[in-house]
Amino acid sequence: NAGVTQTPKFQVLKTGQSMTLQCAQDMNHEYMSWYRQDPGMGLRLIHYSVGAGITDQGEVPNGYNVSRSTTEDFPLRLLSAAPSQTSVYFCASSYAASDTQYFGPGTRLTVL
Amino acid sequence: KNQVEQSPQSLIILEGKNCTLQCNYTVSPFSNLRWYKQDTGRGPVSLTIMTFSENTKSNGRYTATLDADTKQSSLHITASQLSDSASYICVVSRHSGGYQKVTFGIGTKLQVIP
Question: B98 pLDDT band (50/70/90 cuts)?
Answer without folding.
Answer: low
